[in-house]
Amino acid sequence: MTPAPLGPLTGPAAALVALCAAASLLTAAVESRQARGPARAALAELGTPGAVLRTAAGLRAGALLAGCVPLVWGVAQLTSLALRR
Questions:
Q1: Tell me: the pLDDT tens digits for 15-67?
Q2: pTM, 2 dp
């Protein structure tokens, strides 16, 4: 059985999904940055080294990616099921 050809809206739909996923990640990052502003200021006032703050930021970014990458992979797998029929 030959696979069905992709329709004319497949490319724009894939681009829209990718843009929405990127926008969600950026929104989460901005909200996280705004929420931790007072805590960061307090830590800086206490004399916390910059390396500690950078390490914490890296850990937060890693946690965000660790949560979003499996979700994006799952959505991609579910989307591809429709193309396999």
A1: 888 898 889 888 988 998 898 889 888 988 999 998 998 998 899 889 888 98
A2: 0.56
Crossing angle of the two packed helices 50-84 and 10-35, in degrees rounded to 10: 160
**Is residue 55 assigned to a domain?**
yes
Residues 6+ apart with CB under 8 A from 56: none
Give the Cα separation of 38 and 32 in Å (integer). 12
In a domain, 3, yes or no: no
Q: How many other CB atoms are there within 10 angstroms of residue 84's CB atom?
A: 7
Nearest to 25 by CA among 58, 56, 69: 69
| Residue 18 within a domain | no
Residues 53 and 44: beta-carbon distance below 8 Å? yes
Split into its structural domains, the chain has a count of: 1
Give the range of the structural domain holding residue 61, as residue numbers without chain letter: 42-85
